[in-house]
Specification:
alpha+beta, Endonuclease III, domain 1, Nucleoside Triphosphate Pyrophosphohydrolase, four-stranded mixed β-sheet
Length: about 375
């Protein structure tokens, strides 16, 4: 048993990682058997896991980016019911496709799904290619997703390295390199390629993901007593799991203040379709004014564009966080008399007037507006 002083001295010796040592190579060669045994005993039952068609694996992996497994399940089931295969995905109208994605966020993911589906229809006869090099060239697919599809759906011995995998391996080896670095990711991919079992490549990749999601968790203390690597893990042995993984600080997000207007008459509500490129591209949102506006400023603006306001009331503040910016919002619900006739066709403001029932059923509204959608009886997503 090492003393606390000895453990501290070992921790202090951890610096930027040198090329893989023989000891670390031996350590990596020991991980597969206990990991797969643990996975076989208690893996989660997931719809795309029980039926690992290439299309199912692909859709699930794209949905799982930035989204938890439990949240994805109902979206996956609904999506597959309406978009059962690559030809259906390639041919679906964009508004309906994005509506099915509503609530998952990061909508470029589903647009890239469709772009890739159309490439697959044109170049591969509607069947997802099996080779990693072909898969990774498809729109919206990076090395992790290509590795997941190739290994899980086709049994190819290629790694699938995401944040979960990088975290558990950094703790296993007290690896001090920045896990956000592409250099680190490429090194780990090469190291795993050398040790993954060729006959169970898909299970090996899924077991690594499962370990990071269920045991060596991203937030909070890892469940080391449940870990198949408890005897191997260096961070557990040294009691320093909090120090790994190492990441360079992210650039601070910019904050933008907005005033959101939920403008409605008895039948319709006002929306703005966002530009075809950029943040929330092509989505429908509520009209917004830059900055925080007072009730009097909002009233003055609405009268200037020809609306007769019957009633206005504040509906609270909200915040939505994107990857690179935050919207801090102040909202107003506004009841007006004959919205469309008063404001004309809305072209000057870029507004469109949509039947409220139709908005609920057909139009994709991003979750950035979720705090205010309830004022039109709209529930976003599932």
């Amino acid at each position: 048993m090492k003393t606390e002083t000895e453990k501290r001295q070992e921790k202090e010796s951890i610096t930027e990682k040198e090329p893989e040592t023989e000891k670390e190579s031996i350590l990596l060669k020991q991980i597969a058997q206990p990991l797969l045994s643990w996975y076989d005993r208690g893996r989660r039952i997931l719809p795309w896991r029980e039926n690992p068609k290439p299309y199912y694996v692909w859709v699930s992996e794209i949905m799982l980016q930035q989204t938890r497994v439990e949240a994805v399940k109902p979206y996956f089931d609904r999506f597959i019911r309406e978009v059962p295969d690559i030809p259906a995905l390639a041919g679906m109208g964009e508004d309906r496709l994005v509506k099915l994605w509503e609530g998952l966020g990061y909508y470029n993911r589903v647009r890239n799904l469709q772009k890739a589906a159309r490439v697959i229809m044109a170049e591969y006869g509607g069947e997802m290619p099996a080779e990693y090099g072909q898969i990774i060239r498809l729109p919206g697919i990076g090395s992790y997703t290509a590795g997941a599809i190739a290994s899980i759906a086709y049994g190819k011995a290629v790694p699938a390295v995401d944040g979960n995998v990088l975290r558990v391996l950094s703790r296993l080896r007290t690896d001090g390199e920045d896990i956000l670095s592409q250099k680190t990711k490429k090194r780990v991919e090469a190291e795993l390629s050398a040790v993954m079992p060729a006959d169970r490549a898909g299970d090996f990749n899924q077991a690594l993901m499962e370990l990071g999601a269920m045991v060596c968790v991203p937030n909070g203390e890892p469940k080391c007593a449940e870990c198949p690597w408890e005897e191997l893990c260096q961070a557990h042995r040294l009691g320093c799991w909090q120090e790994f993984p190492r990441k360079k600080p992210k650039k601070a997000r910019t904050v933008e203040e907005k005033t959101v207007l939920v403008v409605k008459d008895e039948e319709k509500a006002a929306f703005c379709r966002r530009p075809p490129k950029g943040l929330l591209a092509g989505m429908y949102g509520f009209p917004m004014l830059e900055g925080y506006r007072t009730e009097q400023e909002v009233l003055r603006y609405l009268r200037e564009i020809g609306l007769k306001v019957l009633r206005i009331r504040p509906i609270g503040d909200a915040k939505h966080i994107f990857s690179h910016k935050e919207w801090h919002m102040k909202g107003y619900a506004v009841w007006v008399d004959e919205l469309e006739r008063a404001a004309g066709d809305g072209n000057e403001q870029g507004w469109v007037f949509i039947d409220r029932q139709e908005a609920r059923e057909r139009f994709p509204i991003p979750s950035a507006y979720a705090a205010y959608a309830g004022y039109l009886d709209i529930k976003l997503g599932i």
